[in-house]
Amino acid sequence: MSPRTPDASRRSETSRRAIYAAALGLVAESGYAKTTIEGIAARAGVGKQTIYRWWGSKADVLLEAFLDLGEQQVGEGTLQGTTGMTGGALDGPQGIPDTGDLSADLKLVLRATVDNLLDPRFDAPARALTAEGLVDEKLGRTVVAKLLEPNFELYVERLRSAREAGQLRPEIDPRIALELFVAPVAQRWLQRTGELTHTYTDTLVDYALHGIAPR
């Protein structure tokens, strides 16, 4: 009987998952500045040349690991919210719920957003990517394209549906209106200007909808 040929794809996937876990773990424990490719490689049990073969920088590793973390939770059926700033993976595969009650749907998603932002697994890498994206233009554009815009579009679709149902004024631009919900949450989270709670996001929805409701 001939020996079984090693499965290279399985070996690569195992290494990739170990690298994801190492990158997220080190950023959470030590911060972005102290996280290095060498440190990620050592924790993952791979050579640093393996990492450089797949990624160009630690920022690239972290971005992909963060995307994968969100995809895993969606696959597990966990509802996740988005701020449109942090890059959390969001809202499940069907987007923002559309029950016909815009206020309730937005409150549900923003409550889930708060839960995500208060989860250390998401908080540390999200802050790291946000901060690094401000000084690294290429990374910043990638974060916007891969993390933010897809999530913004979920809000746009839900607000457009509400507008068509007569729940918003006809002239309301959904792309601008979404910022009434996501921007305050993102600012409070990034700058730690106040407590981030479900009560806060519920109130935010009430205030915002009062401003864009039919008159």
TrEMBL record:
Residues 13-73 form the HTH tetR-type domain. It comes from Streptomyces roseirectus. Keywords: DNA-binding, Transcription, Transcription regulation. This is TetR/AcrR family transcriptional regulator. GO terms for molecular function: DNA-binding transcription factor activity; transcription cis-regulatory region binding. InterPro entries: Homeodomain-like_sf, HTH-type_TetR-like_transc_reg, HTH_TetR, Tet_transcr_reg_TetR-rel_C_sf, TetR_C. It comes from the Bacteria. Residues 36-55 bind DNA. Transmembrane segments: none annotated. The keyword Transcription applies. Pfam families: TetR_C_11 (PF16859), TetR_N (PF00440).
